[in-house]
Design goal:
5 strands, alpha/beta
């Protein structure tokens, strides 16, 4: 029995359905795994989804061994929204907020964020100079490193998804994000050209239909992305 692998690398955009329905919700990785295995008798195509919540390109260092040691025949990269979004607090503060610790300090910081920072998010984003957690320079360096490590250590083909452009609600809440996402998408496309990877541009997707919360795909969004990935896989004869 021949086994081939798809490895998905990214943040929660590669995991979630919004809104979520326990009976019907599937991410694009689950959809393409099902479709690619239809009518297969002597071959199995497995999808290993290594995406995790709030991941930035630098956070991927935590799963680098898994990324490489899965030796995928295809890698799908879906990272950047957590990097490029403008932020009301620095990363170290956010890490405390999402900590599993239950200390009094953590509880106090969460309360301070909920009642003081969150209501003034737009103002604080501007006060911080519309700064993101990852600079464009670091994003390019880390994204290039990721593709290099995959291509240098495996025989896998690479498809890179663009970042979903935020809707008006997100842009109003955290101003400057739309412009940053456009800039980072340009970086992703540029790195793909340099590294001979496939760039999947999703700029034509409509937020209200395909990612209604402004970030994560809906069921329809995941369906559209899966169809486009399957089309690329077929045209490039990735699985022969």
């Amino acid at each position: 029995m021949k086994i081939q692998k798809i490895v998905i690398v990214g943040n929660s955009v590669a995991l979630r359905n919004r809104p979520h329905n326990n009976l019907t919700s599937q991410n694009y990785g689950q959809i393409i795994e099902k479709k690619l295995n239809e009518d297969k008798q002597d071959e199995i195509i497995q999808v290993k989804n290594l995406a995790f919540t709030r991941a930035t390109v630098y956070d991927l260092h935590k799963v680098y061994p898994q990324i490489i040691n899965n030796y995928g025949d295809l890698y799908i990269i879906n990272i950047g929204s957590s990097d490029a979004a403008t932020r009301e607090v620095p990363r170290w503060f956010a890490d405390f907020l999402f900590s599993n610790k239950r200390s009094f300090l953590i509880k106090a910081m969460k309360a301070f964020h909920l009642y003081v920072i969150k209501p003034n998010m737009r103002f604080l984003v501007k006060l911080r100079g519309k700064r993101a957690w990852t600079s464009a320079k670091v994003f390019r360096q880390e994204y290039t490193k990721l593709l290099y490590e995959i291509q240098h250590n495996t025989n896998g083909k690479v498809i890179c998804l663009s970042i979903n452009l935020p809707n008006e609600r997100i842009e109003k809440k955290i101003p400057g994000t739309y412009k940053n996402y456009q800039k980072f998408n340009g970086i992703i496309e540029s790195v793909c050209k340099e590294k001979n990877a496939i760039f999947l541009n999703l700029d034509d997707l409509k937020a209200e239909e395909h990612f209604p919360d402004g970030i994560h795909f809906s069921e329809q969004g995941n369906k559209v992305v899966s169809e486009r990935l399957l089309d690329i896989i077929g045209k490039n004869k990735i699985f022969k």
